[in-house]
Structure formats: structure tokens, C-alpha cells
Amino acid sequence: MLLELDHVSKIYGDLHAVDDLSLSVQEGEWLAIVGSSGSGKTTLMNIIGCMDTPSEGTVTLEGRELNDLNASQLADVRKNIIGLVFQKFYLVPHLTAVENVMVAQYYHSVVNEKQAMEALSNVGLAERAHHLPSQLSGGEQQRVCIARALINCPKLILADEPTGNLDEANEKIVLDLFKKLHAQGTTIVVVTHDSLVASCAQREIMLNHGVLVGERWNDEAAQQRYVDAGGEPAKTRHAENSKQSAEESSMPVGFDTITKSAKAH
Amino acid sequence: MNNSRMFMAMILGAIFRRRSRALMAVIATMVGAATLFCLAAVCIAVPQQMNEDMRPYGANLVVAAIEKQGAEKTGISDAMVAHTTSMVRAKSSAKFATYRYETVRINAAPYMLAGIESTQVRALNHHWSVQGSWPSHGAVMVGSDVASALGLNVGGNVTIAYQSSDNGGSTTSKTTQDGRVSTDILNGGGSTYRVAGIVNTGGSEDEIVYATNADVNALSGVKRGADVIEYSSSAMGTDLTAIATSINDMTSMGVKAQTVTKISSSDTKIITMLQTLFWLISVVVLALTFVGVGTTMTSIVSQRRNEIGLRKALGAPNSSIRTEFYTESVIYGLVGGGLGATIGFWLARLLCSLVFGRNIAMNWWLVGVAVVLSGIIAILATIRPVVKASRIDPAVVLSEE
Residue limits of the ABC3 transporter permease C-terminal domain (chain B) (predicted)? Predict the structure, then answer.
């Protein structure tokens, strides 16, 4: 497994932002984490993205346990293994598109403008490479963000609401890019409350108040590969309690209802 | 593009594509540097100017002959005058005048007669108020007190007698000059001189009669060296003392040097006051510059919180974030310092021109100090904002709505 979370909790005082979650992600898998605002999905993404550490439980990324790493070591893991895509793009406003891509190279290893241009070309932005973010549309900025996430060939792409600020046309472009990446074998974890984006993933898990409330596979072949590799269903104490009811149906109890509810947020 | 060029691209991008903030940081540094440069330039120029202005008001170094007890007065020979002058001038420029003092009798009363070279004394004492003209052959200049006591007027005559016994010698043993020895005035002798001028200084000079060295030689019948050399040196304070010490250390010269404390301490007092004022204002200006640059950099860091969070999310170590901001800050400091020094120079030039009526030259050493100091102040003022920046948690910043 590329990523393994074992009974992970993130606790702020009395609040359990993530509550005893166990989850495995196979290499090459596309996972969607869905849930309404405050469900703990961003906290979970921060933990997976090495920007936060769990209060309890262990996180293993590419066989390396992250719990004992300091901030500097976590930064190393982040730049070497993970590519980040944000809802608000977070491009450096005073750098051009190609320079924004090269920033990721700069902190990773060595700047290579040719590679950066190729990455922009792959997302269809070769001609906009020397424009500032303020001169780009939202969709274009998100594509620069994706190019930046991909430039260091990460094992895992972590995307937080990647289409949250995009119109339908740009949403489709971005999803097509993710499909292309996935087809090339990149592991993708997308945090979203958009059912369309979630449905593109091979597997969806749903969080509510930090607790796993559902898991659904959209791709049977992928599920089979996952099971064959020894993967187990995601679980929390809460999910185990409702295991019985989940087994009676092909999807966890209330998944559709909660998805609609989350989307309404 | 390599990493170094990428680093510069990031720094220059932050500076030139965020011009308003960069301009604020540069202006904050520039104002401080301009004020400091102007103050420093004036503080350097004023003492120099003051020294030059004070020099016509008399000597600040006096060298007197050391006479041996019981021996005949020989004064300071011309060769020794030249040697002493070369020692003084080795340290700084100087004007000088020699004085030979003799006690003479006018109407039986003793008076001091000084043998001088008029041009030398005149150049040294611009503040002397002379009615009439300076001494020349056969004509003397009398001090105002002497003129008043004797009822002398310009154009009148005065009879001056020289008695060897008044000057520590015996009349009979004197070597004569031009076949004559001055006689006791009681015996009806003496030489008559025209009163060419009356000098008024408000000081002890008003009690002296001045004649040319040649006339004094003729009157006394003895040609000897000067008793005193007065110097108006451009050296001040410790430099002036060092000159005096170096002369005194050479005991074989047979002279003793002494600084004229009245003028020297007056100079020093004014300069000390100026320097104290300079330091006080400098500290205030430095503090204001520090606050100005610090506030601007805090504002820049605050405005770029998301960008810093992103860089950290991309794997930037704290050292890298710090290096970027310090470099940016140093550039603001150096540019502001350079511009400030230029403006400060023109301000100082204007000030000196208006107050002293003279132009000052660009002091490149001071420019270097201003620029480097601005860079250092910019770095120091950036430490707090940068430490804050390096503590930014990417997870928190990037999760903010």
C-alpha cells in the first residue's frame, strides 16, 4: 500500500476533527474523500499531506511511518512524494506561470525550465507560460497548479476541492487531466464535496464530524485489485458499529443522503 | 535557468511586481540614510570650516625659545624657525609669525617692543583692528593702550630708547651694530620713529609697540633670533597636542611648544557639542528607520502569508524562506541607502552653501558607510517579521477561507 492510516485521530480539546480512522490507499488508486464543511476532510488531507500530524494513530507513506518525523523531515517527504493541488490555486502572484511551476522544482532539486514548459504544455498552457496569475482565468490558474503539483513526478497527488472555484467547462478540463494522470498510474486523493468529482474516483469515502460514515467503490476491478493486495475496507469505531447494516447493502448506510447534504453546503 | 537565477527571479519578481510595498521599504530606508548622511557630512564639514574660519583669529600653537639662566639671549635662529615650521606643517597646514621682544623706554617708562615681519603677523591676526598702517622701516605701530598713555596719534613721532640692562645685559659689553648702542633715555638718547598705525585687539597686544625686525636690530644694536613663533595650524585637539608633544620631545631644539588653550578648547567644545547633537539625532533617526523598515517588512510578510505557506507546503525549509526575505530586505536597504546618500549629499551641500557659503565635496567613504549601514539596519529590522514568517504553519494558512 502507498498510504496507510491506522486508527488516526486528530483531537483539538474536546473536538475530534478526525476520529479513529483506518484507511489504506493502493498505489495507482484514485480515492475521493467527501463530506460537508467541518467533516474533517481537510484535516485528513493535511495529515496525509504531511502538513499536520495526528494526535493518535500512525500514518505510513510509502512504507515510512510519519509520526516520528520533525517539521523539516515532513517537508522533505512532502516535496519528494506529494503533489498538492488547492481549491484557491495558491500561485505566487508575482511569478509567471512557468516560474510558479519552477518554484516547486527549486525547493525540490534543480530548476529546469524545459521540463516546466513541458508540464505546462501537458495541461494546455504552453502559450500562457509567461503570464502572471492575474492574467490567467481560474481554470488556467488551476491547470498551472496541477502542472506545479506534477513537475516533480510525485507518487501521490493530493487535491483539495480542485474544482471548487471553477465553472463547468474548466471543471471538465481539470477532471480530464486527473483521468489522464490516473491512467498514467498516478495515485490521486481528492477531497471534495462535489458528487461529480467524487464519482470520477475509483473509491469514495465519506466523513461526517470526523467519523467515517461510508465507503463506496465505483470501480469493481480496482476494488478487486485492492482486495487482492490485502487492502481492507476503511473503518472507524463508528463504522464498525454500523458494519452489520453496511453489509446488508452494497453501499454504506446513508451515503447518498449525506452526499446530497454535503453538496448543499 | 539554474537555481541561482531562479532565486534572483523570485527576489526581483517580489520587488518589481510588488512595487508599492518595495517602494515603501526603499523610502523608509532612504529617508533615514539621507538624514544620517546629511548630518554626518555637515558634522565633518563644519569643524573643518570652523577651523579654517578660526585660524585668522590668532595662533593655536606657540613655540618659545628656552633661554639658559645667565646666558645671553640668542632667540630662535632662522634655521630653527624653518625646522620647527616644517615639523608643524608635516601634520597639517599652518601659518606662522615670529616675534622678538625687547624692553624699551619711552619717556623713561618701560614698554614692550616687538620685532615682527608685518606680513606674517597680519596674515595670522585678521581680527586686529589697525588704524593707519602696519610697521615699516622707521615707522612703528603702537598698541592702543600705549597710544592712549603717551598721547600718540597716527602720523606723530615717538622716541624709543633701548637699555641693555633692561634686557638682562650690560651696555658696555654689547656688540654694536652700525657703530651704535642705544643710550639711556635719561642721558637724552633714543631713536625717533613715526607712528604708522595704532592697533586695537582688546588684548595684551594693545600694550606693545610693534616695529620691523630690522628696526629692532638697529635699535638694540644686536641681531638675534625670535623669542616666540606663533602658529595657526589647521590641526585641532589631539592632533595639535601631538604636534606640540613631538616638538617638546626634541629637547635639542631648545624650544618649548604649547597649545593656545583658549582657542583650542573653544573649538573642541563646539565640535563636541556638534558631535553629541549628531549622535543624539542619529540614534533617533536610526530608531525611526528601524521602525519604518520593520513595519514595512511586517506588512510585506503579512501580505504574503499565503505565499509563504505555499512555499512551505512545497517543501521550502525555514532557512530558504529566511534567506529570501533577508535578501529582499538587503536590496531595499542598499537601494534606499544609495538614494539616501545621494539626497543627503545634496542636502548637506545646500546647507553648507547657505550657512558657510562654500560647497562640500562628495565623501565616498561616507557614501559606503551610509549604504552598508542601511543594509544592516534593513536586515536587523527584518529579523522579527522573518522569524514570524518562518513560523507560519502551511496547513493553517492554506486552510483559511
Answer: 280-394
Contact across the interface for B315 and A49, Cβ inside 8 Å:
no
Please indicate if any CB of chain A lies within 8 Å of the CB of B313: yes
B394 interfacial to chain A (CB closer than 8 Å): yes
Please tell me the predicted confidence (pLDDT) of residue B334.
94
Instruction: With residue B385 as reference, give the H or E element that holds it.
Output: helix B364-390
What are the two backbone dihedrals, phi and then psi, of residue A186, each rounded to the nearest 5 degrees? -75, 135
> What is the value of pTM for the model shown?
0.68
Rounded to the nearest angstrom, the minimum Cα separation between A40 and chain B is 12
Mutate one of B314, B323, B397 to test the A interface: name it (highest A CB count within 10 A).
B314
- Domains identified in chain A, total number: 1
Neighbours of B322 (CB within 10 A): 16
Determine, yes or no, domain membership for A131: no
Using CB atoms, pick whichever of A46, A79, A111 lies closest to residue B314: A79
Domain limits for position A11:
3-90+156-243
| Whole-number Cα distances in Å, B248 to A89, B256, B399 | 82, 6, 81
Helices B261-303, B305-313: inter-axial angle, 10-degree rounding: 70
pLDDT bucket at B133, cuts 50 / 70 / 90: very high
- Interface check B307 vs A, CB under 8 A: yes
Q: How far is A176 from chain B (nearest CA, A)?
A: 24
Residue A210's pLDDT is 87
One-letter amino acid at B395 equals: A
User: Are the Cβ atoms of A94 and B13 closer than 8 angstroms?
Assistant: yes
The reply to whether A122 falls in a domain is no
Helix (H, G, I), strand (E, B) or coil at B125: strand
Residue with cell string 505565499? B307
Quick check: A107 contacting B, CB < 8 Å? yes
Q: Which pLDDT does position A141 carry in this prediction? A: 92
Q: Tally C-beta pairs within 8 A across A and B.
A: 82
**Residue A63, pLDDT above cutoff 80:** yes
- Which residues on B lie below 8 Å from A94 (Cβ)? 13-14, 16-18
The pLDDT of residue B340 is above 90: yes
Compute CA distances B158 → A142, B136, B144, B235, whole Å.
109, 14, 14, 40
CB contact under 8 A, A111 and B320: no
Please, which residues have CB within 8 angstroms of residue A57's CB and are 6 or more apart in sequence? Answer: A5, A6, A7, A8, A9, A20, A21, A22
A51–B395 C-beta distance less than 8 A: yes
Residue recorded with cell 483521468: A179
With 90 as the cut, is the pLDDT of residue A240 above it? no
Return the DSSP state at B68: P
What ipTM does this complex have?
0.84
- Return the C-alpha cell found at A250: 452494497
pLDDT of residue A238: 58
Is A150 contained in some domain? no
Distance CA B55, CA B124 (A): 7
* Mean pLDDT score, A175-193: 90
Higher pLDDT, B396 or B194: B194
- pLDDT computed for residue B342 by the predictor: 94
Q: Identify the weakest region by mean pLDDT among A226-235, A255-264, B323-332, B350-359.
A: A255-264
pLDDT > 80? residue A48? yes
Is the pLDDT at A144 greater than 90? The verdict is yes
**Is A206 contained in some domain?**
yes
Cα-trace Rg, chain A = 18
Is B323:A107 a contact under the CB 8 Å cutoff?
A: no
